[in-house]
Structure formats: C-alpha cells, structure tokens
C-alpha cells in the first residue's frame, strides 16, 4: 500500500490534468462553433412568415395590382375595384376598349393599418381606368401606372392633380413621349425615376427627377432583351436596377448608373433558374431581392423567392401555409421588418414578418 500510494496520487493528478485539458479544449471548441454559427446565420436571409388573420376584416377589394409601404410603415394598396384585366380589355393595337365606362368611381388607393389591416385612408376615385403599379418614395409621393391610360403619374401626397405625367392618355406608342401599358416605377434616393414600360415596349425608361428622359434600357448597343418588364426595384448599394423580366422568366439587374457612369458597360446580373417561373414583381432589402412568381406551368409552384443578385442565385423559397393564388406585387417595408404581397385572384393582401432564420 505504502509503495503504491505515490503512483495512485500521480495517476489521479494526471487524470485531473487530462480532464481539465479535455474540458478546456472542448469548451473552446464550443465557443468557436458558436462563432462560426453566428457568421453563417448573418449570411442567411430573413425568412418571410405569414401573419395569421391579417387583415382582421375582409376589405372587399377588387384585383390588387400594386402595393407599397409608406414611411410610417403603413401598407398602401392600389386596386381595380369592379374592373378586371382580361382578354377583352385591350384590342390588337393595345387600345383600351372601355373608355366609355369612365374612370373607376371607387377609391383605388387605400392606406392600411399595419397591425390590424383596417383602412386608414382612401384616395384615387374618379381618376384611374385600369390600375397597375404603385410606388411610394421617401417623400411620400405616389408613383402610379395605369395600363389603360398608357400613362405614369407622380402625385404629391394628398394632391388630386399629378405633378408629373408620363405618356399620352389612351394613346399607346413606342416613341419617347408615348408609353404602352406601363407597369411600374422605382425611384432612387437621388431622385432618378425608372419606369418599366411595359406590356408592349419591353423597355425601362430612366428620367431625372424633373422627368427629363436620360436613358432607355436596353440601349441599342446593349446585349439585353426584355419581355414584359412587370416589376422593378433598385439596389442602391450595388448601383443596380433589378427588373422582373416576366416572360423571360428571370430577374435581370443592369447598372442603374446613379452615382457614376463607371461600370455602365458591365453586363447585367442575371438570375434565371429552370423552375423560377414568370417573375411578377421584385422588392429589394439591402442587397437581396424578395420576388413573387405567377402561373407558368403546372410543374412550377407559385411562390415567393429570395434572391441574391451578387451570386445570381435563388437562396430561399417561401409561401403562406394556404398557398398563393395569383400574386401580382410585392413590397418590403422601409426598415425591412416585414413585407406585403398583393394578389389579383383571389383578391387579397398578405403581410409577412421577416424573421431571422433559426
Ligand atoms: C383598337 O381600338 C382603337 C380605338 O378604340 C381603334 O382606333 C383601332 O383601330 C382598334 N384596332 C383594331 C386592330 O381593331
Ligand atoms: C420597423 O418598424 C416597425 C413598425 O414601426 C417596428 O415595429 C419594428 O421594430 C422596426 N424594426 C426595426 C428592425 O427597426
């Protein structure tokens, strides 16, 4: 016993040292795993989670063609009331066929409470014939397109007369003064105006803040061809304007040329995957894009897409538990905490919270 005791003590001491070393190294490993985990979590996009029972009440709306969010974080929607866009709306030369019905008498622009979905404000009665796009800029101006009128408008908040008018009323055309069923606006913080025009011309017009035409996208020497630019958004940190190039089933992001003309010859970023479907609208958050597609084929699900334009990849897919019907427009709110999707069949508006991935 006496002889073995020092060995036992030594063995115990060595064991303790080994255990301490194991605990120490494993706890260090834990920490470093968490560090790696945190880096990965930061790289993953926020996930849209549908808010249940929002809006609380049935708003009894027509086709909701446009949605945007004002700086009070309130969603603002643009709807067609009793009008429906179908194969009889336009003839073969893209002329609107129901001018005799007059403008929609109901309010077409509704501001909603972000918590309850209750209607807080109504505007835009007796002006529009076939609503399409709605964009609210940081100064609360409303940028609206009406496909029937072949026009785009800038309305200052609360005013009934537009301060800027693009295109000629009921006159489809492809010169620089006429539009043809324009779809949507995107407005830069520097004031430049991007107008997607539209169902027939398949071009994007870039104007300065006063409405002077600066550029037509694609330009003649540009290797880019659009087929119904249906939605448009800016990614200012990347100096890109991203277009829902609907019939080409892709999103393309040419240079916006906001800060300098350097790089305007860079090729567009192109996001096109086989099951992407026809992309109806896009809205940016930081350097990412949230998009919705529409009916394409029975094999391609109608869903929301989260896109990283820099890697030209779809990085997430999402939809409400009940599924989408026919989503038409999407808007991320100014601080990126939620997004809204407007549908034209059934006519409804969805709110999604943007939550960090688990
Ligand atoms: C389409 O309608 C417009 C006006 O309603 C008319 O002037 C034009 O000739 C029509 N085009 C065709 C192809 O019928
Ligand atoms: C964004 O705004 C909403 C509504 O005001 C607010 O509840 C939310 O906390 C804000 N989120 C961030 C990230 O600032």
TrEMBL record:
Ca(2+) binds at residues 67, 134. One of its GO terms (molecular function) is metal ion binding. It holds the Pfam family NHL. Binds one Zn(2+) ion per subunit. It comes from the Eukaryota. Keywords: Calcium, Disulfide bond, Glycoprotein, Lyase, Membrane, Metal-binding, Repeat, Signal, Transmembrane, Transmembrane helix, Zinc. It catalyses: a [peptide]-C-terminal (2S)-2-hydroxyglycine = a [peptide]-C-terminal amide + glyoxylate. PROSITE patterns: NHL. Disulfide bonds join 180-200, 242-253. This is peptidylamidoglycolate lyase. It comes from Cryptolaemus montrouzieri.
């Amino acid at each position: 016993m006496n002889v073995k005791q020092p060995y036992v003590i030594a063995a115990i001491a060595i064991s303790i040292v080994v255990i301490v070393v194991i605990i120490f190294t494993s706890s260090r490993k834990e920490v470093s795993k968490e560090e790696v985990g945190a880096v990965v979590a930061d790289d993953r996009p926020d996930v849209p989670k549908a808010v249940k029972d929002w809006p609380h009440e049935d708003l009894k709306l027509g086709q909701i063609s446009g949605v945007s969010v004002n700086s009070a974080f309130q969603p603002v929607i643009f709807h067609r009331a009793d009008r429906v866009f179908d194969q009889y709306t336009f003839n073969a030369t893209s002329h609107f066929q129901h001018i005799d019905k007059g403008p929609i008498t109901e309010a077409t622009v509704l501001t909603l409470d972000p918590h309850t979905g209750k209607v807080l404000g109504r505007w835009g009665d007796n002006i529009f014939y076939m609503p399409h796009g709605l964009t609210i800029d940081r100064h609360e101006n409303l940028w609206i397109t009406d496909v029937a009128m072949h026009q785009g408008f800038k309305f200052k908040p609360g005013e009934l007369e537009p301060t800027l008018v693009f295109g000629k009323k009921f006159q489809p055309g492809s010169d620089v003064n006429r539009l043809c069923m324009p779809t949507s606006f995107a407005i830069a913080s520097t004031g430049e105006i991007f107008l997607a025009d539209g169902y027939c011309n398949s071009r994007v017009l870039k104007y300065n803040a006063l409405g002077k035409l600066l550029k037509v996208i694609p330009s003649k020497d540009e290797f880019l061809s659009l087929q119904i630019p249906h939605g448009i958004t800016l990614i200012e940190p990347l100096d890109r304007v991203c277009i829902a190039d609907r019939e080409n089933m892709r999103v393309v992001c040419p240079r916006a040329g906001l800060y300098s003309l350097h790089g305007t010859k860079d090729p567009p970023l192109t996001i096109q995957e086989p099951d992407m479907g026809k992309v109806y609208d896009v809205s940016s958050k930081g350097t990412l894009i949230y998009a919705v597609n529409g009916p394409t084929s029975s094999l391609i699900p109608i869903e929301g897409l989260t896109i990283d334009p820099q890697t030209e990849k779809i990085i997430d897919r999402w939809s409400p538990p009940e599924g989408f019907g026919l989503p038409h427009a999407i808007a991320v709110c100014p601080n990126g905490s939620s997004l809204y999707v407007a549908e034209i069949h059934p006519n409804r508006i969805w709110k999604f919270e943007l939550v960090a991935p688990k």
